[in-house]
Design brief:
The chain is α/β, with parallel strands linked by helices and 306 residues long. The chain has one domain (3-21, 29-301): Ribonuclease Z/Hydroxyacylglutathione hydrolase-like (Metallo-beta-lactamase, Chain A, 4-Layer Sandwich), CATH 3.60.15.10. The chain has nine helices and twelve strands. A seven-stranded mixed beta sheet has the order 1-2-3-4-5-6-7. It has a five-stranded mixed beta sheet with strand order 8-9-10-11-12, with no helix packed on it. The two termini are 13 Å apart. The model is unreliable at 1-17 (pLDDT under 50).
Length: 306
């Protein structure tokens, strides 16, 4: 998709559940619609899904938003777009929980598709927003930092407010759950995946909610530019890390990046065994992403650009 065509303030997407919600959005700066074209593509309806144990999805067909239950409240991962906030909150309530019980919102990357809804969700819940340290300035301002490969798109959204920055390996604890930050720079300098333990019927699995690992960039950006060596090296480390990460269940920021759209459809249809349980999923995801990156590098070296 050509992000440069996005109109950052526009008509509300069809996911808004009512005229009352639309009216509220018109008055609320944190709910101002972002990228209407992308919203129509990504915010496709999806019911809340119980993935495994304490792990749920409350997002959409094209954007995952995870919900983790703990003995002391809830943890959200990502916030999609402002147009989707009302639907996310409705799904939390549909599962029998309260929005005010969300204590943390963890961010994978500071791009509009995953982060522009976080401000409203944090405001409505009172949650603490947590992200990789390098992502904090972009999340707070709503503007990608100059070292982001997608900075040239100039895709702006309302900043999310205060953000707690954490380093690789940091652990967020809430009640009986510990979620670990896994730095995976490349797609953005601050890209962060999150992993936690989820148990059901005496069987425990490691769940990974992964940030994007694909080498998408604005026009004229070159990963082979010597000035971008640090991010290119970061990509290589991220692929290696994802291949060896303890991972029984993979959730990716965009479901289609890892077959999550197919898994969700199977789960809704009652498929057994659980289609999300796959101990090879993270390794396969890393290998597919690395192949895309290798092709991108080869294209740049051959003078083909993007």
């Amino acid at each position: 998709m050509n992000y440069s065509r996005f109109v950052l303030i526009g008509v509300a997407a069809s996911v808004l559940p009512s005229l009352a919600t639309a009216a509220r959005a018109a008055r609320d700066p944190l709910l101002q619609p972002v990228a209407p074209e992308a919203a129509r593509e990504w915010l496709t309806p999806q019911p809340p899904l119980h993935i495994y144990g304490n792990s749920y999805l409350v997002g959409f067909g094209g954007l995952n938003v995870a919900l983790i239950t703990t003995s002391a409240g809830l943890i959200l991962i990502d916030g999609a777009l402002p147009q989707g906030v009302a639907a996310i909150e409705a799904k939390i309530r549909q599962l029998g929980f309260k929005v005010r019980d969300v204590k943390y919102i963890l961010s994978t990357e500071p791009h509009f598709d995953h982060a522009s809804g976080i401000g409203a969700l944090a405001r409505d819940s009172g949650a603490i927003v947590v992200a990789g340290k390098a992502a904090v300035p972009a999340l707070q301002s709503g503007w990608p930092t100059p070292d982001d490969p997608q900075a040239g798109y100039r895709a702006h959204y309302h900043g999310v407010g205060p953000v707690r920055g954490v380093s690789d390996g940091a652990v967020i604890r809430l009640g009986d759950v510990a979620v670990t930050a896994v730095a995976v720079p490349g797609h953005t300098p601050g890209s962060t995946s999150w992993t936690w333990r989820s148990c059901e019927a005496g069987q425990c699995k490691m769940v990974v909610f992964s940030a994007s690992l694909n080498p998408i960039s604005a026009e004229k950006y070159r990963f082979t530019d010597p000035a971008h060596r640090a991010l290119t090296d970061g990509f290589r480390r991220s692929f290696a890390k994802m291949k060896t990460l303890p991972c029984d269940i993979l959730i990716t920021a965009h479901p289609g990046q890892s077959g999550g759209d197919i898994k969700a459809a199977k789960l809704q249809a009652g498929a057994k065994p659980n289609p999300y349980v796959d101990p090879h999923a993270c390794r396969d995801y890393a290998e597919q992403s690395e192949d895309l990156f290798d092709k991108r590098i080869a294209g740049e070296q051959a003078g083909r650009g993007k």
